[in-house]
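User: For a benchmark we're assembling, each entry needs the component sequences followed by a predicted structure for the full assembly. Here are entry 17's components. Please fill in the structure.
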Amino acid sequence: MTPTQTPTQTQNDASSGAGTLDTRYQPVPASVSFPDLEESILKLWQSRDVFKRSMEERAGGPEYVFFEGPPTANGRPGIHHVLARAFKDMFPRYKTMQGYHVLRKGGWDTHGLPVELEVERQLGLTGKEQIEEYGVAGFNQMCKESVWEYLNDWEALTERMAFWVSLDDAYVTMTNEYVQSLWWILRQLWDKGLLYEGYKVVPYCPRCGTPLSSHELSLGYQEGTVDPSIFVKFVVKGEDNAFLMAWTTTPWTLPGNAALAVGDKIDYVKVRDRSGALLYLAKERAEAVLEPGYQLLEKMKGAALVGKEYEPLFQFGAAPPERYAYVIAADFVSTADGTGIVHVAPAFGADDLAVGQAHGLPVFQTVDAAGQFKPEVTPWAGIFVKNADPQITADLDARGQLYKEETYEHTYPFCWRCDTPLIYWAKQTWYIRTSDFKERLVALNDSINWVPDHIRSGRFGRWLENNVDWALGRDRYWATPIPIWKSDAPGSQYMECVGGLDELSQKCGRDLQGLDLHRPYVDEITWTAPDGGAMRRVPELCDVWFDSGAMPVAQWHYPFANQAEFDTYQQADYICEAVDQTRGWFYTLHAVSTLLFDRPAFKNVICLGHILAEDGSKMSKSRGNVVNPWQVFAEHGADATRWYMYTAGPPGNARRFSGNLVAEVKRRFLNTLWNTYSFFTVYANLAPAADRPPAETNNDLDRWLLSELNRLVREVTAAYEAYDVTAATRPIAEFVDDLSNWYVRLNRRRFWDGDAEALFTLRHALVTLAKLLAPAVPFLSEAIYQNLVLSVEPDQPDSVHLSRWPQADASAIDTELSAAMALAQKVTTLGRAARESAALKVRQPLQQVVVRTRTADERTGLERMEQLLLSELNVKELNFADEGAELVEVEVFPLPRQLGQKYGRGYPVIRRLFAQMDQTELAGRFAEGKTVTVEADGNSYEIEAADVEVRRTPRAGFALAQDGGYLVAVTTNLTPELEQEGHARELVRRVQQLRKDTNLEINDRIRLLLPQTPQLDGLLSAHRDYVLAETLTLEIVWSPATENPTAEACATFSLGEEKVTIGLTKFEISNQ
RNA sequence: GGGCCUGUAGCUCAGACGGUUAGAGCACUGUGCUGAUAACGCAGGGGUCCGUGGUUCGAGUCCACGCAGGCCCA
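Assistant: Structure for entry 17:
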C-alpha cells in the first residue's frame, strides 16, 4: 500500500511537480447536462477499465467484504432497486479509496414462486394440476429461461447508475454448483439432527387436496359467511363446578384441542352464574357473553390463570404422552370478541401451532387430507369436518359443557377454484430446527451493527426471540429439491440425506455428471434401500429464502471448490437491503450462519425504508404513480438521483420520491458545486501561476476554508465509519454552500487578481470535495478530478475512484477561527437586516456598526473578523455594545439554565424581581464582580455575574436587528462624505452594468464619458482611483455622453439629487 | 389482532444533555444586490411541535395512554 495522501503532501507534490506556467485546465461551461456528462464518464471508465482495476489495484490490501443480496431478473428493475443499489455501492467505493480490496461479486435469485407464477401466466396455466398436465420438465425449462427475461434491463440500469458489481462473475442460485452447496449445507444440518418432518398449518382445500398459496388465498375471501359461534365450558381440574369459558367458530377443531390461551395482562373475572356454575372469562367480555344475573366473585390477571389444568374435552386413541390441557399465555389473545380465553388446536391454526411448539404441546391431527375425521375420532370418523359441527355441538350440550350457541358472520376464505370452504390444516413438511438455536441467534445478533439501531432489538430482535422452526418444504416445481431420499418399503422410516452430486452418483451406482438437479430429473434417481424398498426423493423443494440465505457458502460452490475464496469472504462487513428483508434475507443469512458456523453472517447492515410516491402514498402499478428510473436518469442524471436518496432523510425511514425532488437537489447542490468548479477553471486559466501552491497562506478566509474543509473530512470519514449515510452527505452540501456563497463571493477580487493562495485554496477544496463525494456522486466527482487533478498532475491515479481517501489535517483545523467566522456570518445577516429596517442600501457606506455578543470570547473572535465585517456591511467602524454606556440601554437577563438548576422554582421569582429593578445599576454591580441577593417569600437567592447575561442595546440613532441574544446595530446618519462615497459606488455599479449591456469582455479596458457637474467633479477627485480600478477605465473624458458620437453606449440615472448620463467606449490597445 | 417505525410551517427535513424568542431549504409575496451561478441577500405571511394526561421552576425533547400513517407478521 502506498501512504495515504494528506493535504500537506498534495501541496508538496504539486509544488515539486506540476506547477509550470503553461498548465491549463479544460474550460468548463457554466451550465452542464449531467446526463450527458455521465454518459461520457461511463465511456471513460470503460476505456480505462476502472471498475476492474479498482479491485485489482487493491489486491493484497485488507479485505472488505460485501454481500450482494440477489435480485430476481424476471421483473423489471424499479426505482426502489435504485435506492438499494445506491446504498450498496457507496461503502465499497469508500473502502476502496481507503485502500481495501473489495470484491463485489454479484448474484441472481432464480428460483421460486414468482418465477413459476410468471410462467403460469405465460402458458395460460392455472394451478398445479394443469402444470402437472403440461409436464414438469417443460414447465421448469420455461422457468429457467424466464428468469433472464429482464437481465438486459438489470445490467443496463446497474451500469447507468454506476453500481459497481461484477455481474459477469455473479452467483446464480439455479446452477448445479449452487444447488450442490445447498445440499451440502442441508447434509450438515441433517447430520446434526436439525432437519425433521413436522407439521405446518396451511390454508387447504379438502376437495382439491392441495394447500393454497397466499395469492390464491386472497382470491377467495367471501364476506358475510355465517358460521356457528359456540361458548364452551372446559372443566377446571381440582375446583368444584368451575369452568374456563372459551369461544370458537369452528367446533370441528375442538377434538384437536391441546390448550387454552389467555393474555397475561388482560383482566379476567370469576363469576357464579344462575345455575351456580363458576365461570372464568375476560372481565371486558363478561357482560356481552353472560346471561344476566351472574355474580362477580373474583378479579385476576390472565397471568394468574396460567398453568391451570382442565379435563380434555375428548380423548381418542392412545393416551397422549405429553403434558397438555392447561392454560398458557399467548400474545394473540384479545378481548375484541369471544371470551378472552382462546381454544388452541395446533393442527388447525398457525398461531396455535406456533404457540404449541413454543410450549411443547402435542399436535392432534384428527383430520385427513380429504377434510374428514380420521378413524380414531370414533364418533365422527369419515364425516367432513364442517358437517360435523352440529353433532359436536350437540355432544357438548348433552354433557353440560355448552354455555350457549349462536351464529357468527365474518369474512372467510373459500377455494377460488371449487368454492369449497378452506380449512387451516397442519400438513407434514420439512423443518430446520432453528428454535434450538434461539439463544445463539439472539446473542450473535447483539454484535451486529444495525442501521437504524432500533432494528437490532426491535423488529429483528423480536423476530429472533419468537423464533419458530424454519418450515423449509414447498410443494412446488421450480426450486432446489430437498435432497432427502426415503425408502418406499411399507412402514419404512429409512431415509438418507445426500450432500452432493458425487455422493448421489455413488448411491445410485452410476455417474450423474451433467444431471440437472431440478425436478423432474432428480426425482428419477432411485436406488435400493437396506430394507429392500426403493429410495425415492421426498416430493418437497426448498423455500427459496434458503437459497439466498446460503449464499456465503453457495456463491463459491463450497466445499466442492474455492476453499480459499470461501475462507476470505465467508463473513460480510456490509450488506444493505430494504426493511422487508428483516424476515427475509437478513434472517436467512443469520440463521444459516448461526446454525452452521455459530457466527453472524454480516457485521454491518443498513436497513432501508421503502420508497413512496411524491404524495407519500405507496408506489404501485395500479395507482399509476410508479417512477421510471430511466426517465429520472435521462432528465436529471444518476448522481442527482443518488444524492437525493442519500440526503432525503434517515435511511431507515420511508422516503418520498419524484423527479421534482431530484430536480431540487440537482439545482441546489450539484449545480452550485458545478458552478464553483466552472468559476475556478475560468480564473485559474487566466492566472499563469494558478496551481503554484503558496508555502502557507496567511489569509484568514483561506485558513478558515481549509479549517472547515478538514473538519468536513473528519466528520464525513467518521460518518462513513459509523455507516451513517446522512451524516456523510448532508455536511458536504452545507460546505459547498459555504464555499460558493461565502468563500468564493468574498474572495472574488482575489480570484480576479489571480491570487495564487486563493486559487490554490479553492482548487484544494474542490479536489478534496471530489474525493469526499466520489462514493456518493461518482460521475461529477470523476469529472472534477479528471480536470483539476489529472490536467496538472498526470502521475496521479487516473480515476478518482482509484485515488486515496483524504485524511483530515488536524493542524489545519482552527476551531476558534471557525466559530468566529460562523459568528461573523450571523452578524452580517443581522447587520443587513438592520440596514433593511432603515431602508439603507448596502451600497451606502455607514459610519458604525455596533455588535452585542453573548460572551467575551465571541467578541475577541469578531475583532479578528473586523475587516471582513466592515466590508460586508460597508461600514467604517466596528464597535461593541459594552462600550460607551451613554449610547446603550441595558437589560440584565437571568439565565434559565444556571439559575433554574440552582434554585428550581425560584427562577421565575428571580426573573420577575429583576425586571422590576434598575437595570443599569444591576449591570454595574455584576460588572464589578459583585453578587446580588434578592429575597422573596422568605427565600433568599444569591446571583453571580455568571448567572446573568447583560444585554446592551444601542439607543436612538441606530437601526438594529437581533436574534438569540445577539444584536447588531448600524448608525443611520449620513455625512456628506459617506453620501459621496455611496454615490461613487453607485457610479461604479452603473458603469459595470453598462459594460455588461454592451457585451464587453471581463478584461476589456474602457474610456468613460462623464458630464462635468460639481457633484461628479467632487466625487472623482475623492474617489478617482477607486472608480478607475473597478471599471477598468483608462481614461475619463469630461463630455456629456449624449453629445459625444464616439460613445458606444450610454445610461441615465439618478445620483442623489442629480440626474446624470454617462457613456463608455472600448479602449482599443494597439500591439495586442 | 401483535411487533417495529414515523408524526415539527403548504412541501421536504434539522432540532446532543429538558433551558434564552422551535430552525433550514423549497414554494408564495415584497425588496435589495450582482461581471461565477436558471444564483444570492433581507423581510413578510405561514406552527394547538398528532392528541390527552403526567413528571419538572421549565417539555418539541422524559413517562403513560390514545390517534393517524407505513412496514412486517398473523
